[in-house]
Design a protein that fits this description.
single chain; alpha+beta; 5 helices; 13 strands; 22% helix
Length: 248
């Protein structure tokens, strides 16, 4: 590990930054190691157009923007807690069957992982520069965030998709200020059949909400909500396409 004069994205500490694996080693081993192609990222445009697909190995998918204290402290503890909950998600348990603490662990893990993946990829920046610090080192889920889960056909690789919310209904008074490129973000990941993701919007939280516009996704945070019937998603990209922004 080397040090460089940059701020930690989560706590703001200067220097002493470490190289954080976007997908931790325990998760890499969970799906079969760190061979090239084990991990696949999909980028989408703000209208949901699939731009490209990039394949990584676990070793070369890292971000050197996190301090040693965060990496070895709250983030390591979060990984330990999430590793205990993941088997329940892989067995297709509904969010209501998880404890409140477990749902918070899933929510914090996917937001943290989505941030790190977003900043490590060669992709246009959507999330505000201040967004990572809003996690308050693993204590707070930022405003404007909802977390979802679902199921897809299991694969021997991890696939994720990121982009903007593509279904947007904006009030006439907000049309001129709404930026489709920057005001919304989605990140979903599929791990051996378990789909986990979060969506965010930067508008007035009292005036706008995020919800699901196609069947198949359960809401994990802020409260558990499940569809009446089980539905297997065709692909993790479809999960990212199924979130809608609408006025309350």
């Amino acid at each position: 590990m080397g040090a460089e004069k940059r701020d930690c994205i989560f706590c703001g500490a200067v220097g002493g930054l470490s190289r954080e694996h976007v997908l931790p080693k325990w998760l890499q081993l969970n799906v079969g190691g760190s061979l090239e192609g084990t991990f696949t990222g999909i980028r989408s445009s703000f209208i949901g157009e699939r731009l490209d697909e990039r394949k990584f190995s676990g070793g070369n998918f890292t971000l050197k923007r996190i301090c040693t204290n965060c990496n070895n402290g709250w983030m390591s503890q979060l990984e330990d807690r999430f590793a205990l909950v993941l088997p329940k998600l892989e067995s297709f348990m509904r969010p209501s069957q998880l404890s409140k603490t477990e749902r918070h662990t899933v929510s914090m893990w996917i937001v943290k992982t989505g941030i790190v993946a977003h900043l490590s990829a060669n992709y246009r920046r959507i999330l505000p520069e201040s967004f990572p610090a809003k996690l308050q080192c693993g204590r707070v889920i930022p405003r404007g965030v909802k977390v979802f889960c679902g199921t897809t056909e299991p694969e021997k690789r991890i696939i994720w998709a990121q982009g903007n919310v593509v279904a947007n209904t904006v009030r006439k008074a907000d049309i001129e200020t709404f930026d489709a490129y920057k005001d919304t973000f989605v990140f979903f990941i599929a791990i051996r059949g378990a789909v986990i993701g979060f969506a965010w919007h930067g508008l007035d939280n009292a005036a706008y909400k995020l919800d699901v516009c196609v069947p198949g996704l359960h809401q994990v945070y802020p409260r558990p909500i499940s569809p009446p019937r089980k539905h297997v998603l065709e692909h993790v990209h479809m999960a990212a396409m199924s979130i809608r922004l609408a006025p309350r």
